[in-house]
Amino acid sequence: MIKYSIIMSLQLCFMLFGFNLMAQNESDRKSNFNLEKEYAIQGYDPVAYFTESKAVKGSNKFKANYKGIPYLFSSEKNKETFLKTPEKFEPQYGGWCAYAMGLDGSKVKVDPETFKITDGKLYLFYNFFFNNTLKDWNTDEANLKKKADQNWNNTY
User: Fold this and answer.
1) What is the mean pLDDT of the chain?
2) Residue 29 and residue 65: Cα distance in Å, rounded?
3) Closest CA to 90 of 45, 135, 58
4) Cα 62 from Cα 79, distance rounded (Å)
């Protein structure tokens, strides 16, 4: 009986610890994600970038949450596509400007309509006040991407 109680207590501890780690990871993830306007990509549909090659605003009718990050979609089909393989459609660097992440690791807001898909990954860029960082990214993409990956992985 004592052996059974110890085993049950250990299982309960592992279960609680595991849930705590999961919640903590989602909380950390959410704090590092660009959630301007309360949604990833400011409510634009992440799947549409890949299927329509353009930025399409999502609708409150089609919402999903992936690891603590809320998304909007333009259709039920896109929502279901996302939920099958969300990591394929999520923006890189938490949806922050890829150029700024490569330059110095800073979190800079983006214009969701300024994007690039490279090697099946979505990159977003700052494009305001006559400053389109996608142009700068394109001049040294390989080097900036390498630095952005390092900055993101080391800092966030």
Assistant:
1) 88
2) 12
3) 45
4) 7
- Tell me how far apart the alpha carbons of residues 106 and 100 are, in angstroms, rounded to a whole number: 6
Alpha-carbon distances of 132 from 26, 76, 104, 127, rounded to whole Å = 31, 32, 17, 4
Q: What are the pLDDT digits (tens) for 28-60?
A: 889 999 999 999 999 999 999 999 999 999 999
CB-count exposure of residue 155 (10 Å: 0-12, 13-18, 19+)? exposed
Count the neighbouring beta carbons within 10 Å of the beta carbon of residue 154: 8
As a whole number of angstroms, the distance between CA 75 and CA 57 comes to 10
Would you state the pLDDT for residue 14? Answer: 37
Return the closest-CA partner of residue 151 out of 95, 91, 98, 87.
98
- 48-63 per-residue burial string, b: 16 or more CB within 10 A, e: under 16: bbbeeeebbebbeebe
Burial code (b: 16+ CB inside 10 Å, e: under 16) for 97-136 equals: bbbbbbbebebbebbbebbbeeeebbbbbbbeeeebbbeb
Q: Where are the beta strands (DSSP E) in the chain?
A: 59-66, 69-73, 111-118, 121-125, 127-128, 131-132
